[in-house]
# Entry
Amino acid sequence: MPSDAEIAQSAKLAPIAEVAATLDLSADQLEPYGRYKAKIDLSVVEARRSERPRGKLILVTAMTATRFGDGKTVTSIGLAQGLGKTGRQHCLALREPSLGPTFGIKGGAAGGGYAQVLPMEDINMHFTGDLHAVTSAHNLLAAVADNRAHFEIRARRKAGRDPAPGELEQISWRRVLDICDRQLRNCQIGLGKRSDGFPHETGFDITASSEVMAVLALARDRADLRARLERMIVGWRYDGAPVRAGELDCIGALEVLLKDAIVPNLVQTIEHTPALIHCGPFANIAHGCNSVVATELALHSAEWTVSEAGFAADLGAEKFLDIKCRELGHFPAAAVLVVTCRALKLHGGVELEAVGEEDVAALERGFANARVHLDNLRNKYGVPTVVAINRFHFDTDAELAALQRLIEGEGARWAVSEGFVKGGEGTRTLADEVTAAAAEGNRPLAPIYDLDQPLELKIERLATEIYRADGVDWSEAAKVDLERVREHGGDALPICVAKTQHSLSDDPTLRGAPQGWRLRVAGLRLSAGAGFVVVRTGDLMLMPGMPKRSAAQKIGFDAGGKIVGLS
# Structure
């Protein structure tokens, strides 16, 4: 089979105006970025909110995957193409890839095989510049905050006085970069002469973890974007009060930097069906979903909208349902739970290096992990769910037969998904099963906790109901954080739990469906602009490092000038 890059480069793309026409968008409603990419004016989103009803939303999520990923994006794209093959009007709504993973361990995030969004090279690298705009806005705010502190310190020195209660004591706003670089996780800045600034410790996080990215993804319009930017907390005063971005007189500059980044991007799948790709917040410290404006545009433009959430269902789907859907005011008509034989075998005790070998017994043991995710979606949230078996070439007939028996034993719908190899033709059955499941949904859908519940109860509910912990243990630092967050309105907000994506528990080494464990809360942080409280479990690493041999070392041009090594 050709490589992802070879398939993408051999595809004949449709002009972006033709793709837009499938959503009843005219050429004058587009801001073209070349021939095959365009932004869609926010006025179109606003008009369609009031003029057109919403279609049905399909959420694609997954069981706890291997570190290679197990095809959630491929399944999302393939499902959209399958809807197209079966004559259903649809739109795909995905997150934007980040340069960090593209050049790190994971590679690109535009799908693979014959289930890709195109132009793949552009989408994976730079795209329409949205992530660069977020990086610039975030770092401008960091510079302005440091500048405020610099001149306050200088004034104190000149006057020979102690700090005033309202002056900056701590700057909590770090800087960001869209490249994986472990050397920048912890830095000392402001060294040198007094004119070079004031010495303090800080560091860099990856751009996808920026609160500016989360704000951009959740904002409904430019006014909402401004209000959220103003609420962001950049530091703390000597009197214990927060310093918000709105107090630093630079929100107008941030808005200008983000003026195009808030506008959704239109591209196409390899089968010329529409795809809105916009925003890319982390799925641990943030909610891991594409933007509200892109999702709303898709919902008001198509009969079916296919969207995905980062990591597995305990992280991405939970945040999609408990955070994004509250902002959206709309819940999925159906969900797709992606499972793979190799991930099931991993959770059944097989080492990663051997997951390509047949082991039916391990697969059966590992199904405990998928069972928890399936139960959460269907019975805790009430979302009709179809299990998509993302088939790999090394899956055996015996493994697939065993997996099908296990799924049927749960009374769940299922389909083998072969979008990677066959495109939309390989997901026709999945498309039929998903639309049938959506038609059966008659149970009221609801988040797992109520916003008026105290933070401790929200965390307890998630830990025991979704992660299946026995309870919650709080560190002393987390108890201090709780009081500070509560003092500044955190009790009224949803929670965003930052934990490992490699386990249902907070311990990445525990596979399957761990029992007899307790969630350990290490700290809390108020993301006031995004509108949620980050609950940290264990060490939270927001700047990934590169592996010994990174994806960046495989990328380049061939003799004919084509990009190679990007997937």
In short: The chain has a mean pLDDT of 95. The chain has three domains: 4-128+261-339+367-391+409-440, 130-255, 455-536.
